Amino acid sequence: MEIETVKPEIKTTVHRRRREIWMERLFLFAAWVTLLLTISVLLAILSKLFADGLTRINWQFLTSFPSRRPEMAGIFSAWVGTLYVMVLTAAIALPLGIGAAVYLEEFSHRNWFARLVELNISNLAGIPAIIYGLLGLQVFVRWFRMGESVLAGACTLAIMSLPVIIVASREALRAVPNPIREAALALGATKWQTVRDHVLPLALPGILTGTILALSRAIGEAAPLVTIGALTFVAFLPKSPLDSFTVLPIQAYNWVSRPQHEFHRNAAAALIVLLALLLLMNSIAIYLRNRYQQRWRI
Predict the structure, then answer these.
(1) Are 17 and 154 in a shared domain?
(2) Contact between 160 and 199 (Cβ < 8 Å)
(3) Is residue 247 exposed (0-12), middle (13-18) or buried (19+ Cβ within 10 Å)?
(4) Same structural domain for residues 38 and 115?
(5) Quick one: pLDDT at residue 297?
(6) Which residues, at least 6 apart from 221, have a Cβ–Cβ distance to it below 8 Å?
(7) What would the mean pLDDT of 290-297 be, rounded to a whole number?
């Protein structure tokens, strides 16, 4: 009697396990198909981009200013302006973002105000870029009278990058084990010394990961900079943060909007240079992240 009652349960367990295996295989197949489709679309876009613009990239293209003639046009002012804006953006966003994350995670009280700030930061990460452009136009261009300058563009992009940096930095700080904090406090360190000498170095690789994501988004944004009045045709280099400027996405947009096919090739070449700058910036951040991971490995 016991054997007869056990057999249906075993059979049911076997059938359930088979269904789970088939569902797992089906999910794995769907994941692979999605991955292959995504990679195929990306490769198609990149192949078209490189086919149109790779032959246009040369020293003359990199060191010439924009021109009405496509064969004489270059991106000198655009890529210099991009580097200028991104350096200022990082200089503004990183201290503010990391400082806000450290305060919220390590020093703030868990009251209604802290929860309200956290909720707003999470919501700000999903706001469209054009809204930040309108904010930068009103606050930095008009109220602070910065004009259509490099500094106004950097401040706008910094505000747009802050939510991602703060959220990623908080997650990195939260991942540091609590016994490290407790050991430092037990040895007589103050709260700030514990955060400065122990928590921040261990969280720095995760913070750099969030920085990569935030600045990678900022370097390709054109809508906020167009909104604050960044120029589409600049035949000079900005000499100070209060000068007018242009960046590679705006220059590429200007060329794509023209009917001549030669300008479209220039736009593709400008986007290739933008990808190269993005890879360079990410490579530096990844190198620093890996270096600190090896140095502070637990």
Answers:
(1) no
(2) no
(3) buried
(4) no
(5) 58
(6) 129, 157, 160, 249
(7) 69
